[in-house]
Amino acid sequence: MTAPPVRVLLVDDQALVRAGFRLVIESQADLTVVGEAGDGLAAVDHTRRLDPDLVLMDVRMPVLDGIEATRRVLALPDAPKVLMLTTYDLDEHALAAIRAGASGFLLKDATPEELLAGIRTVHDGDSVIAPSTTRRLLDRLAPPLDPGAARSAATLTGREREVLAAMARGWSNAEIAERLVVAPGTVKTHVGNILAKLRVRDRVQAVVLAYEAGVVRPGER
Q: Angle 173-180/184-198 helices, nearest 10 degrees?
């Protein structure tokens, strides 16, 4: 038996942009568009009514912007994943969206292949924003130290803290394994433990917390 298609809600204030994304998404047997919204308030309402698996959300919209809409969508019971759309990869709004709980972001000029891969990756529980891009965002717009984040980071073992710092520097699991001289499976286990202890959704959220906790600071490599 094949799994049902991933249900996607498109949210963008430009009808032509939505039409283009719909065309790409509907060309895939494992994806389907269940609705469209032209502003953040409508996005929250459509999420309640249509129960999508994933919301493709524009950052800048009238009535209610994508950042606040993301917060409201993720506060709903059985909330879907949210993948943000932005124009610039170093847009401060992208960082705000990540901190609001989005699983990452795509540039609006992404190729169809990048769009489809992003949707599938986020639906599978990972993030699509490159850790190196997250790091550049945080280096440029570093959040202040957060005592709550520091307390969360204090629950990690020494090795887990090392792995978290490596994640924040943009290293992949394979790179972490090579540099720490451990098996890739061990790194994967550490990453899972880190996400659970920090109570974050994915690697992107963990990287943000690493900066907020002072595990890494801007400019560190």
A: 110
